[in-house]
C-alpha cells in the first residue's frame, strides 16, 4: 500500500483518441485518492474534456512536427524548449511523482521535462507501431503499456506489458442491442469529424430515402461541417441527428445496431468493449498506416467490414449498411466476435503501474 497520495501528470492531447484513454486512467487514479492534472494546448480536445471531468489543466504552446509545412515545423521547434522549461516548473511546483503519456505533439514538452528531472514516465502505446514521441523516448521509459505484442520490439526488454487501451467502463456494460423497428447506424469520424465520411454519408441519404429504408442515423460530423450537414439533413425526411460532437459516446453506442467509423486505436478498443459490429474506414494518412492494421485485425476476427477511404462513396456505404441490415444473424455474430477482442481492466492496471513506478522512485 502507498503511504501517501501521489501526484500524476497526464500527457497527450489534440484529439479525443489521445485524451479519452488518459481520462479513463485519471478517473481511476482519482478514485484511489491521488491528485491528477493534465498538460495540453487550448486548441486540443483536452481543453474541453479534462476540465469537464473536474481535472486541472496547465497550458503549453506546441504544434506537430510530422505532416506539416516548413513554417509550422520551425515554429514547433521554437516552441518546444519553451514548453519544456514551463513543464519543468510545473513538475517541481506540483511535486509530480510520475507521468503517463499517450503520445501526440502535446506530450512532447511534459515528457521531456519529466525525463530531465528523472521523474518516471509510463507510456501507453495503443498502435502496432509507436507514434513519433513514444519512439523517440522508448529507451528511457519506466514502463510501456501496449495493445499489440509486436509493439514490444520498440522498447527495452522487460519493460512492456500487454494491457490494451483503457476504455470507459460504460462500454463494457452495454448489453447486446435487440432488433428494433428502425436500424440505427452511428457514423463518427472522431472528435473532429472526417470529411470523407461526412461526404459519403450525405451522398447516401437520398439512397436510403428512395429505398424506403427504415434507418435512423446518428452522425458526429465535427465542428467544421456540422452546421452545413445539419441543415441538409433536416430536409431529407430521414430519422436521426447530425451533431458536432457526442458528449456521451457510450449512450450513442447503446442505441446503435452498427457503427461506421475510422479505425484509430481508441475507436477499435471501444468497439471491442461494447461488442459492436462495424464498418471501418481507415484514415489513409495515418502514421505507418496503423489504422489499416487496426481495421484488418478486426476484419480477420470477423468483427468488421473495411471500406478503404479511396473507395468510399455514398452508394458503397449504403450497400454495405443495407447488406448487414438484411443479415441480422451475421450482424449479431460480428458483435460477439468484437467483444472477444476486448481487454477489460486496462485502466486499473495502468493506475497500478503508475503507483508502482512512483513508489520505486520515492
Main sheet: strand order: 3-2-1-4-5-6-7
User: Portion of residues in helices?
Assistant: 40-55%
Kindly report how far apart the N and C termini lie: 14 Å
CATH superfamily of the largest domain: Glycogen Phosphorylase B
The low-confidence parts are none
Biggest sheet architecture: 7 strands, parallel
Count of beta strands: 13
H/E element sequence: EHEHEHEHEHEEHEHEHEHEHEHEHHH
CATH topology of the largest domain: Rossmann fold
Number of helical segments with 4 or more residues: 14
Overall average residue pLDDT = 90
CATH architecture annotation name of the largest domain: 3-Layer(aba) Sandwich
Give the total of domains.
Answer: 2
Radius of gyration from CA coordinates: 21 Å
Describe the protein.
Helix 1 packs across helix 14, helix 3 crosses helix 4 (108-116) and helix 10 (265-274) packs across helix 13. The model has no long low-confidence stretch (mean pLDDT 90). The strands form two sheets. The protein has a seven-stranded parallel sheet with strand order 3-2-1-4-5-6-7, sandwiched between helices. By secondary structure, it is an alpha/beta fold. Strand 8, helix 7 and strand 9 form a beta-alpha-beta unit. It has two domains: 7-166 and 345-361, Rossmann fold, CATH 3.40.50; 171-340, Glycogen Phosphorylase B (Rossmann fold, 3-Layer(aba) Sandwich). It has helices spanning 16-31, 46-52, 70-94, 108-116, 132-137, 169-172, 195-210, 226-233, 249-255, 265-274, 290-300, 314-326, 328-340, 346-361; strands at 7-11, 35-40, 57-59, 98-101, 121-125, 143-146, 160-162, 183-188, 215-220, 239-243, 258-261, 278-280, 304-306. Helices cover 44% and strands 16% of the residues.
